[in-house]
From TrEMBL:
<keyword id="KW-0645">Protease</keyword>
<feature type="transmembrane region" description="Helical">
    <location>
        <begin position="157"/>
        <end position="181"/>
    </location>
</feature>
<keyword id="KW-1133">Transmembrane helix</keyword>
<feature type="transmembrane region" description="Helical">
    <location>
        <begin position="187"/>
        <end position="206"/>
    </location>
</feature>
<keyword id="KW-0812">Transmembrane</keyword>
<dbReference type="InterPro" id="IPR035952">
    <property type="entry name" value="Rhomboid-like_sf"/>
</dbReference>
<feature type="transmembrane region" description="Helical">
    <location>
        <begin position="127"/>
        <end position="145"/>
    </location>
</feature>
<dbReference type="GO" id="GO:0004252">
    <property type="term" value="F:serine-type endopeptidase activity"/>
</dbReference>
<feature type="transmembrane region" description="Helical">
    <location>
        <begin position="17"/>
        <end position="38"/>
    </location>
</feature>
<dbReference type="Pfam" id="PF01694">
    <property type="entry name" value="Rhomboid"/>
</dbReference>
<dbReference type="InterPro" id="IPR022764">
    <property type="entry name" value="Peptidase_S54_rhomboid_dom"/>
</dbReference>
<comment type="similarity">
    <text>Belongs to the peptidase S54 family.</text>
</comment>
<keyword id="KW-0472">Membrane</keyword>
<protein>
    <recommendedName>
        <fullName>rhomboid protease</fullName>
        <ecNumber>3.4.21.105</ecNumber>
    </recommendedName>
</protein>
<feature type="domain" description="Peptidase S54 rhomboid">
    <location>
        <begin position="62"/>
        <end position="204"/>
    </location>
</feature>
<dbReference type="GO" id="GO:0006508">
    <property type="term" value="P:proteolysis"/>
</dbReference>
<dbReference type="GO" id="GO:0016020">
    <property type="term" value="C:membrane"/>
</dbReference>
């Protein structure tokens, strides 16, 4: 009998992990890959120019950009790195909050707020027109949420004789990412991180749909029975605004994402 190799074991674990991903996380992965495939024949349609968040291109007719830019990537490496980083974090978020709340928040305030802040600063404060794209804004937003919750449970970590607030960890990742990938948008990452901090502190709770409405919608449409991998309001793992796990199972997602952060690529100068 053949002895299982480490490679085959890791492949099996990866496959099992992908098969258990909740619905919204799966949909985001499929959408990101689909947008990348559509961007390949650029001679037919410049998808990157169409969907990127470009400050000077923003208007009533192009407001869709504040939702499309996280799905569009510069190249396959950019896409893969962002998928590796955002998948475990999105998985944890959806498992905690449920599928409907994840849909409402990521197609609502958790994407539109950092996008609007970025456009305002880039266009009216810096007077520039640097376009950004990529799911790394979600990566840093979710890292910000996790950092605040970690800070509440464990405020400091010690390096030599210095006590450093745990909420500053994503800031270090922003700096390292910019140092390794100078073409990445530090401002875009900071906007995502800032909104993540605000959400982690609980100041955006009022933007979340009420659970009573979500339960009614789930029951009326029988979403749990019709949609595989759907996470119900009453099926959440950790409580709607509770503390995310820090180890074991999906809890390792934050550490994985810390080491695999992609970047929002600049289109402008």
């Amino acid at each position: 009998m053949a002895t299982p190799t480490i490679a085959s074991f890791n492949t099996q674990r990866a496959r099992a992990y992908l098969f258990r991903l909740p619905l919204f996380t799966r949909a985001c992965i499929v959408a990101i890959v689909a947008f990348w495939v559509l961007s390949i024949p650029s001679s037919m349609w410049d998808l990157k120019q169409w969907g990127a968040l470009i400050p000077n291109e923003m208007g009533i007719a192009t407001l869709y950009r504040i939702n499309t830019f996280p799905f569009i990537h510069q190249n396959v490496f950019h896409m893969v790195m962002n998928l590796l980083a955002v998948t475990p974090l999105m998985d944890r978020f959806e498992s905690e909050h449920g599928t409907l709340i994840s849909l409402a928040m990521f197609f609502g305030p958790l994407t539109t707020i950092p996008a609007i802040v970025y456009v305002i600063i880039e266009r009216f404060v810096l007077g520039s027109n640097t376009g950004v794209m990529g799911a790394s804004i979600w990566v840093f937003l979710l890292l910000g949420v996790e950092a605040i919750r970690t800070y509440k449970a464990n405020p400091y970590f010690v390096v030599s004789t210095y006590s450093i607030p745990t909420w500053t960890s994503p800031l270090a990742v922003v700096l390292v990412t910019y140092a390794l990938v100078p073409s990445s948008s530090m401002l875009g990452h900071l906007c995502g991180l800032g909104v993540g901090y605000v959400f982690g502190l609980g100041y955006l709770k009022f933007l979340a749909p009420p659970e009573k409405v979500l339960r009614w919608a789930e029951t009326k449409l029988n979403l749990l029975g019709r949609l595989p991998h759907f996470v119900s309001v009453d099926q959440k793992t950790y409580g709607r605004f509770g503390v995310l796990p820090t180890n074991g199972g999906a809890g390792g997602g934050a550490s994985v994402a810390m080491g695999m952060v992609g970047s929002s690529q600049r289109l402008g100068p």
